[in-house]
Amino acid sequence: MRPPSPAGGASVASGAQAGPTRPTRSARPARSASPACSASPACSASSGSSGSSGSSGSSDDPVRAVQAPAWGLLVLLGLSLLPAACSPEVPEAARRGPNVVLIVVDTLRADHLQAFGQPQATSPALADFVSVATRYTHCLAPAPWTTPSTATILSGLHPVRHGSHQPGSSLADGVVSLAEVFAENGWQTAGFSFNPNVSCASRFDQGFQHFRGFEGRSRSYPDVSEMRADVADWLDESLSGRFFLYLQPMNAHGPYVVPPEHQADLLGRRPVGGFTYYGVMMSAILRHGEVERREHVLPAVIASLHEQYAAAVRYTTDELGRLLDDLRARGLYENSLIVLTADHGEELFEHGGFSHGYSLHDELLHVPLLVKLPGQRQAAQVDTTVSLEDIYPTLLRQVGLPLPCAVDGRPLPTPQSGPTALAAEERCLLFHVDWSRRCVARGLRLGRWKLLHVLSDYAGAEEQYLLYDLEADPLESTDVAAEHPELVVELSERLQLELAERARLCVAPPENVLGSLDQEALQALGYLGD
Question: At the topology level of CATH, where does 95-426 sit?
Fold first, then answer.
């Protein structure tokens, strides 16, 4: 369904007021906190397609075509974009701040952890952690694949603002990363990522004093056990004070690699064969648009896919449990702030597809979020809908540091926070994917409703509006746009205004470094060949 275009607001002039200009990454000195990230006047409404073939030229794209509303709409839209009151001095609370561990499990669906309702024993090694952590039951990623979602976690900015949302996008120099903030305030910073999109080549090492990315060309990714060993070595050999530790293991990402000796850990046997990651059938549907082949996907093939994915989740969480034990053995667990989440989920044929990046359905956006505060001894649960955008301001608030710039996220609510104006209002969450050979779409979730505007996708959809009533249909199986045309118009106008406002505040477009990334690893992971 396609509603009429709403009237635009005031146009964005090329000389619009921008935030302070920051030095380039290679020459960036320590900074005092600044009132805003370096928004670029040249950024206008076409948010950062620096040299990538993944952009869409559709004139109906709300980011590219809608004129941005005036600043007064910030109040009406309820955006949390007001600059923080920042001080160049490190607060005393931060001087005594805790260690911070941020674990982003690549491609982990919320519903595949036992803490989020999975009946299989996919995560027994996390039981002790879950027993003292706060569980956020409805955390959503802003994008359905790694680069934009990880950039959001590390910046607190929506993908339209940070601009890293196309294949090969680097982390923009205008972004103030979590690692930078921690490093500049006295924390040791170390990052370990086995996803080639989150690497030194793509500048996601920004702010890390130690960073290990993917090394080698003969496989899709190193094993999570290697990451655990590397972290233990770093803790024993390099640690000299409080630290910020970032981890992004990959074994839950296709091709769902589990060492032979652990393949029977979940089921008591190896997963059944039948499904091959980016095999003939999967490639025909996703890469060649042969959607008629969906009806030939046998239940046995889907069962094989589910078993392979679940076995990889079990193996990954077992290793992460051992990593948490490593922290305990060194006396670093109890008083550390530890967050476990994911960058996105995975489609297991719920909507006729596989992998990720091909839609904005909830199986790709609903991710786990578990937060253990220093000294926390009791589990808690928060059912408020939250976003990966919220991790950035939450971590800084918890350690006593001010925000270095205006962000899109909000500090996560807690069971003790009680009702507030921000928590009580219906929060509008935005979703975005900009991968021309997979999917170009925008989405909005407001209360019980979720609207998707699909500009194009792998299955041949063009200019399609989809509306889901999440209370009646949480699996998004029935499009009700035709039954609620006025609501579609209302939500589409809201979507365009919200996206245009964020585009107005975006940082300078990041460089596209696709040619510099590990091509063999990208091919094995399915990122090339679309």
Answer: Alkaline Phosphatase, subunit A (3.40.720)
